[in-house]
Amino acid sequence: TFVTNRNHEIELVYGEDVEGRRQTYQKTGDKWSLVLDQADEAGSTMPVVATEDGYLVLDNQGKTASAHLWSPDGSMKLLYSHPEADISEGYYDPEGRAWLFVADSHFPEYFYPDPEHPLALAHRKLTAKYPNDDVTITSSTDDMSLIVAFVSSPKNPGVFYLVDTGKSAIVRSLRSRPWLTADMLGDMVPIELKVRDGMKIGGYLTLPPNREAKSLPLIVVPHGGPHGIWDYFGFDPQIQLLANRGYAVLQVNFRGSGGRGREFEAAGYGRWGTEMQDDITDAVKWTIADGVADPRRICIFGASYGGYAALMGVVRDPDLYRCAVGYVGVYDLKLMFERGDIQEAEKGINYWKLVLGTDEAELRRRSPVYNADKIQAAVLLFHGKLDERAPIEHATRMAAALKKANKRVELITERREGHGFGEEGNRTEFYERLLAFFGTHLAPVH
């Protein structure tokens, strides 16, 4: 990443080497000098933009990623830090000046480095007008006299507004997904709990519209990634599709997820299929104890790492789930060192060693493909034959292992799809089959 000054001249360059070390070089005249050299475990200082007083940086060496004003002489001034959540986004005007930072706690929280900046003023007026929505300014004219703002929430797919900032007037609006109305969508409720070893985790429970939050069929949807990724408050078409069909939907920001500081993310390294999986299980049991979920009607469904978590969920807790769906998932941790686009680079191999470990017996123990005999739930697998991130062998091996163990499994492949289905017809078929599968296995139990 390059950082330029107001004259568009490169002053800093920031990047990582194959060992994961973060390094920053500064250019003075024709010479480059190393000004930061940080090991992965120590956190990092990422320069974002040059200012008149130094460089605005995002630094995650503390509990959470925070905004600072930094100088290559080593001085650092804190501008904004959220006690629980990382800064997830920064916004800059046409001249490169930072005017907004967003931290995703349970809801988006905003920090304005310059509260009197024209875009900050416009954003504050819009958030006051739409207090229950997330407001994002997506673009502006160079003089910032006109802006496009996107306003959305879990029950609002979003509206684009063209705003005249001088007059504080909305010139034009355009709805996203106008066929969806609030009464068709479910409330998204933040949750927080302590799991079995005392760690605090969070997530969201989306409830079906017009249904009492009691003894509901539950679908657990672990996110992909898993590291550096997290579930956040907002409209999610897939989650709302499931809620609209009468299911409560649980999303868990288990340890290892992003957005909650470097230590929380690192707590998941080497814990795939163990403590990370226990966090999901404990959240599911919390919904049962709270009376929201019917313990006899629970399924788990995820994509990529989420597919792995879905299959490991029914391996580790076979009596908890009636069904599992893996979508472009990884099911053989040993295979991840041999096939896929991440392991093709030395940096990728080092990453797998960090987050998965290297003990082959342990990798087998934490791989669904070697534990198919423990699964009692019905399993549905979707995979693209052109998937380079999670090669098709993951799905074919998983299906073969389940069939060999005389388990219920169906594998659906698409020959021209990769890591996720993009063609409209394939996506339509995917969701039709998914809903039919859940309809069969989450039907009322008499």
Summarize the structure.
By secondary structure, the protein is α+β, with helices and mostly antiparallel strands.
What is the strand and helix layout of this fold?
Layout: E1 2-4, E2 10-16, E3 22-28, E4 31-38, E5 45-51, E6 54-59, E7 66-70, E8 76-80, E9 87-92, E10 98-104, E11 108-111, H1 118-129, E12 134-140, E13 146-153, E14 156-164, E15 169-175, E16 188-194, E17 200-206, E18 216-220, H2 237-244, E19 248-253, H3 262-266, H4 275-289, E20 293-303, H5 305-316, E21 323-327, H6 346-356, H7 360-365, E22 378-384, H8 393-404, E23 409-414, H9 424-441
Parallel strand pairs: 18-19, 18-20, 20-21, 21-22, 22-23
Antiparallel strand pairs: 1-2, 2-3, 3-4, 5-6, 6-7, 7-8, 9-10, 10-11, 12-13, 13-14, 14-15, 16-17, 17-19
Written description of the protein model:
The protein is α+β, with helices and mostly antiparallel strands and 446 residues long. The protein is built from 9 helices and 23 strands. It has helices spanning 118-129, 237-244, 262-266, 275-289, 305-316, 346-356, 360-365, 393-404, 424-441; strands spanning 2-4, 10-16, 22-28, 31-38, 45-51, 54-59, 66-70, 76-80, 87-92, 98-104, 108-111, 134-140, 146-153, 156-164, 169-175, 188-194, 200-206, 216-220, 248-253, 293-303, 323-327, 378-384, 409-414. The strands form 5 sheets. Strands 16-17-19-18-20-21-22-23 form an 8-stranded mixed sheet, with helices on both faces. The protein is globular. The protein starts with a strand and ends in a 5-residue tail after the last helix. The mean pLDDT is 93.
